[in-house]
Design goal:
The protein has 10 helices and 11 strands. By secondary structure, it is an alpha/beta fold. The protein is globular. About 2% of the residues have low confidence.
């Protein structure tokens, strides 16, 4: 084999990217995980390979995706990987093999879109929530798959690019970082891939005119960037540590809480939804604001 590689007849198998090896170690070790990531990290292929492996080993593996098209794509990847495995690594197929699941003698991979009743009344060993920040019914699904996972070797894997600083996925990241969810946390910024350099970054940024917050969420260099909101409307160089005063009390402890609209309606001055709280002493604090992508 080495002679064929040296002669250029066949290509040497490339070493896996470091983050791929780390993820394989995490998942193979049975840890429940929460992954916050930049785009284009090949996570869907990795979870498809992991799902195949665990289903052939033993047990039901559930994969939740943001829609039917994405759910179907997971099964397509699982099939592709299985078809290209060496014969000695393949488990015998089961009876059900379609766009929604693939089955083996000892287990199956079942893929679902995030709907209100997804995976309810089912029981399995592993749950994977792919691009969880974009699931329409993430909280409802969580209430269902918590009881659905059984056994001491039960495992859940939550992964996503950010969709802003609020919502179920953002809460899961916070809980994992604070070590209150039973899951480990990992963050993979845009520089994780060896082929993503500054030239790539600058070129990618040009694809997001007027959508800086969205670009940072999808290609973050830090966790703060991953949860960025619209910014830079008042300050040309926005720094949250300089331009945002800390709240006197948490939002939940305000005497009055509400939201409103800051009307703009002109280029560079978009309409924005704002979240406000008033303390018992009468101090007003703006806790956040939201501007739809593409409005700036």
């Amino acid at each position: 084999l080495q002679e064929l590689i040296d002669a250029g007849t066949i290509l040497e198998r490339p070493a896996p990217w470091p983050h791929v090896a780390q993820i394989a170690h995490d998942l193979g070790g049975g840890a429940s995980m929460v992954y916050l990531k930049a785009r284009q990290m090949y996570f869907t292929w990795m979870i498809a390979a992991f799902a195949d492996f665990k289903a052939m080993e033993r047990g039901e593996v559930f994969v939740l995706s943001q829609g039917q098209e994405y759910a179907d794509a997971v099964i397509e990847r699982c099939e592709y990987i299985f078809d290209h495995l060496p014969k000695e690594l393949k488990a015998p197929k089961g009876k059900k093999w379609n766009t929604e699941q693939i089955s083996f003698i000892n287990g199956a991979v079942k893929s679902f879109p995030s709907t209100k009743n997804a995976i309810r009344s089912l029981s399995g060993k592993i749950l994977i929530a792919d691009e969880a920040a974009f699931h329409d019914y993430a909280a409802e699904n969580h209430a269902a798959w918590g009881p659905a996972l059984s056994g001491v070797d039960a495992q859940f894997v939550i992964l996503s690019t950010s969709n802003g600083p609020f919502g179920w996925f953002a809460d899961q990241v916070k809980a994992a970082r604070e070590d209150t969810s039973g899951a480990l946390f990992r963050f993979y910024p845009w520089q994780t891939r060896p082929d993503h350099d500054q030239v790539w970054y600058d070129k990618e940024k040009q694809k997001y005119p007027g959508q800086l917050a969205r670009f940072l969420r999808e290609n973050p260099a830090s966790i703060d960037q991953a949860f960025a909101q619209a910014e830079g409307l008042v300050y040309t160089s926005f720094n949250s540590t300089i331009h945002v005063a800390p709240a006197k009390v948490p939002f939940e402890q305000c005497h009055w809480r509400g939201a409103g609209v800051d009307w703009g309606g002109s280029p560079g001055n978009p309409n924005a939804a704002v979240v406000l709280g008033v303390t018992r002493e009468g101090h007003v604090h703006q806790y956040d604001e939201y501007v739809a992508d593409g409005e700036i």
